[in-house]
Amino acid sequence: MGQRLADASTPARLAAPDEGIGRDELALATRNHGLPLEALRYDVTPPGLHYVLTHYDIPYVPDDTPWPLAVAGRVARPLHLDLADLRAFPAVTTRVTLECAGNGRALLTPRPVSQPWLVEAVGTAEWTGVPLRLLLAEAGVEPDAVDVLFTGADHGVERGVEQDYQRSLPADVAMGTEPEVLVAYAMNGAPLPPQHGRPLRLVVPGWYGMAHVKWLREIAVTDVPFTGFQQSVAYRLRQESGEKGEPVTRIAPRALLLPPGFPDFMSRTRVVRPGPVPLEGRAWSGQGPLAGVEVSTDAGRTWHEAELEPDGGWRWAWRRWHYDWTATPGEHELSARATDAEGRTQPLEQPWNRGGFVNNLVQRVPVLCLEPGEEG
Ligand SMILES: Nc1nc2c(c(=O)[nH]1)N[C@H]1C(S)=C(S)[C@@H](COP(=O)(O)O)O[C@H]1N2
Ligand SMILES: [Mo]
């Protein structure tokens, strides 16, 4: 049994406000990566630019692996499928924006010691696969089903216990159509890349990343709620370490700006020239559908309605928004905020819980507008 390892989901501790990034956070930050924010320009994130989060090692899966997938537990007819069997089911393609539940946690005070995302743990892909409800119907779910448990092929040590990556969904969510959960074998029309779950992953549109189990090898229907580490210890909203906490589920509304102008290499401040500066970005929500996006160019003091483009039929994908700004010389702070149809919006003051989950604090983008004719 290995020693206790740092994990990307529940912070072992909180960093003091002035404490720099530690070795455990660096170890996570150098194997995972975020979306370069300029890639918010694309409807579908280009290959390699989608964020990646892996808790353990990426399993090695050679191209010709048949990959057995079991559908077991409280079902009338357990299934033993492989990739070829799955491809024989009707295929569905869905465009989905995926976001890590810990997105934004590196900006919190105190900072949870875990994967240090700023705001870039997001990406959009077109996933192709079999609706999970078809597999469950084929297996015949027993009436006493409570949860459906998904097991990945990766594993590691959590709090001194060796275990597989496992997450469950309530049975009604697993069998539902809004959203339709997929067992996906393709990403953007190609087999899944290794880091995104080759050869099979779960896709749960509208839910935070932890639910989308990669390297999926077993689906088990259970008559008791699943209480494993990634369900009951990690991914809970807690103010104090001993609390049971509410589970993390659907993605809260968020808008991000495509960085305007060009970066000042060291400070990362954005530099623009005076005059018209078109602002654009993306907004999404896994809770209520989006109702609107507003932009502030004065550090959140005043807000202006942005133009939010239609969803093109992709309910679970981000939507483009734009707003015409006229920049004047000097320093500015830009923000955007999304609101959903039920009035949920993004806070200006940080929401806080021990894991730094579901934190949709408004993004702040410092901008320096040059004097006319000045060089950056
Ligand atoms: N088997 C397995 N599935 C997993 C994970 C993992 O570590 N192992 N990480 C989860 C988390 S926390 C996130 S945010 C998403 C990230 O998906 P991506 O790397 O394809 O963007 O995968 C989820 N599925
Ligand atoms: Mo995540």
Helix percent band: under 10%
Q: How far is the N terminus from the C terminus?
A: 55 Å
What is the H/E string?
EHEEHEEEHEEHEEEEHEEEEEEEEEEEE
User: Count the helices. How many?
Assistant: 5
The overall strand count is 24
Helix/strand structural class: mainly beta
Question: What's the number of structural domains?
Answer: 2
Give the CATH class of the largest domain. Alpha Beta
CATH topology of the largest domain: Sulfite Oxidase, Chain A, domain 2
Give the strand line-up of the largest sheet. Answer: 16-17-24-23-19-20
Query: Which ligands appear in the coordinates?
Result: the ligand Nc1nc2c(c(=O)[nH]1)N[C@H]1C(S)=C(S)[C@@H](COP(=O)(O)O)O[C@H]1N2, molybdenum atom
Q: Which descriptor suits the 3D outline?
A: globular
Identify the CATH architecture of the largest domain: Alpha-Beta Complex
Under CATH, the homologous superfamily of the largest domain reads Oxidoreductase, molybdopterin-binding domain
Could you please describe the fold and organization of this structure?
Strands 16-17-24-23-19-20 form a six-stranded mixed beta sheet, with no helix packed on it. A five-stranded mixed beta sheet has the order 3-2-12-7-8. It is mainly beta and 376 residues long. The relative contact order is 0.16. It has five helices and 24 strands. It is globular and about 70 Å long. It starts with 13 loop residues before the first strand and ends in a 7-residue tail after the last strand. The chain has helices spanning 23-29, 83-87, 132-139, 171-174, 229-233, and strands at residues 14-15, 69-73, 79-81, 92-99, 111-112, 122-131, 147-158, 161-170, 182-187, 190-191, 201-203, 216-222, 236-237, 246-247, 254-257, 262-263, 270-272, 275-284, 290-296, 304-305, 307-308, 319-327, 330-340, 365-369. The protein binds the ligand Nc1nc2c(c(=O)[nH]1)N[C@H]1C(S)=C(S)[C@@H](COP(=O)(O)O)O[C@H]1N2 and molybdenum atom.
